[in-house]
Amino acid sequence: MKLGFIGLGIMGTPMAVRLASAGHDLHVTTIGPVADTLLALGAKHVETAKQVTEHSDIIFIMVPDTPHVEEVLFGANGCASVSLQGKTIVDMSSISPIETKRFAKQVQEAGGDYLDAPVSGGEIGAREGTLSIMVGGEEAVFERVKPLFDIMGKNITLVGGNGDGQTCKVANQIIVALNIEAVSEALVFASKAGADPARVRQALMGGFAASRILEVHGERMLKRTFNPGFKIALHQKDLNLALQSAKALQLNLPNTATCQELFNTCAANGGSEMDHSALVQALELMANHKLS
Fold first, then answer.
1. Does the active-site annotation cover 169?
2. CB 64 within 8 Å of CB 11
3. Phi, psi (5° rounding) for residue 111?
């Protein structure tokens, strides 16, 4: 198939590599350099989203935030600067559900199809093709794109209409943040109480407290490996979407707000570019105690 991929960061590059490895004709563009691995697989680097769209039937977008998606779609050299008739836009970024509905409507009015398909699973999931993909859009469009989703992920769900995929991703990020915070509290507590936090984690992995967060991010906390699989700055962005949406819906997300403040503490101490498991450092700061 003739595919396009816009945004080749920590997540986008391995996702695009998987598509290219499956033999698809791939045109790509990104702000930084394109990975040699991707070029070696035959991906063609072009300068603009417009050029990607001209050469592609299905265009995947994986950029950081809502304004970036809007620029990719509707900027001077964006996707919509050429005819979208017969083309499908698949936004796999994590952005505003409200704005997603607007973007989808504009693309559809221009003759194209639109899916919002944010992902969960981090860099490891992107490399291994095990991402969870939460999709919003029409069922017929979803079924047409699903074989490509199958290359990138394992748990692929059509949640509902446009915007519902993004709503699901916001819910996902609430759960992930609260779990990281819970694991952080537990390990800092155990360590300051004098127990070996590594052995505590090992014991908890066999009980009801076991989780993917305890397994992966608990290990990161203990080994201090905070090179980003998913940056604190991006999780701050996602929780901001949650809190903004909660305000609009007139509901309270008290623990989400607490996690955001802990991420803010990390950011204020130079941790914006660290992995979100580094949230533990905010609790260590307050406890005057590092995991040991």
1. yes
2. no
3. 100, 0
Looking up tokens 């446009």, which residue turns up?
162
User: Of the candidates 51, 97, 115, 99, which has an alpha carbon nearest to the alpha carbon of residue 77?
Assistant: 51
User: The pTM is what?
Assistant: 0.91
Cβ atoms within 10 A of the Cβ of 3, count?
24
pLDDT for 286 equals 97
**How confident is the model over 104-144, as pLDDT tens digits?**
999 999 999 999 999 999 899 999 999 999 999 999 999 99
The one catalytic residue among 101, 169, 231, 237: 169
Measured CA distances, 28 to 14, 47, 66, 239 (Å):
13, 8, 20, 29
pLDDT for the residue numbered 292: 75
One-letter amino acid for residue 200 of the chain: V
- Between CA 115 and CA 193 the distance in angstroms is 49
Burial 260-291 (b: 16+ CB within 10 A, else e): bebbebbbeeebbebbbbbbbbbbbeeeeeeb
Residues 6+ apart with CB under 8 A from 113: 87, 88, 89, 107, 137, 138, 141
Is residue 90 within a helix (H) or strand (E), and if so which, with residue range? strand 88-91
Residue linked to tokens 């040991």: 292
Residues 43-63: tens digit of each pLDDT: 999 999 999 999 999 999 999
Q: What contacts 24+ positions apart, CB below 8 Å, involve 65-70?
A: 65/93, 65/95, 65/237, 66/95, 66/96, 66/99, 68/7, 68/93, 69/93, 69/95, 69/99, 69/103, 70/99, 70/103
